[in-house]
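User: Fold this; tokens only.

Assistant: Input:
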Amino acid sequence: MLDKIGIAKRIAREVKDGYYVNLGIGIPTLVANYVNDDISVEFQSENGVLGMGPFPYEGEEDADIINAGKQTITTLPGASFFDSATSFGMIRGKHVDLTILGAMEVAENGDIANWKIPGKMVKGMGGAMDLVASAENIIVAMMHTNKAGESKLLKKCSLPLTGVGCVKKVVTNLGVLEVTSKGFQLLERAPGVTVDTIKKATEGTLIVEGDIPEMTV
């Protein structure tokens, strides 16, 4: 089974040379720490940063350099800073190759709910709406079940939607699943996790074909 760092490491393998990548709040922010050194990637943050690097070491933080989740970050040579209008122009103009988001729920048809739990105070949907509407490739990083042990990979989302039919792949603490027209296609299982465990933790339609390999992280 993977922890949050393991999920981030696995998603980092999806990042290709030359990509422009937007990292959402939560687990996705860890991905920048684990991308291979032999590829060139531009990480974009919706608050107006292009060229984010890994998190800073303790004692080297600069409180003026933060990501959209208000975490201190580093920047790589050539990084740039700009206003929100320019940042969302990049996103809405489809100039981002890959978007990595967290989620509270994902449906088997690719719907995503990641911004609101009814009855709890939120400031608004924020940039998630623009990201899911504009991105060609969305990977979700999340835990497979909630704290009560209930599946977060569902037939239909119960929470207010952020986007419809937009998620391409989900990486959880249990495995890697691709969203297809028939449901969640299981591609890999996390170390030590059985296919049966994943079946029991997935409410949505789970497609299992052949032997499912154990992932390497």
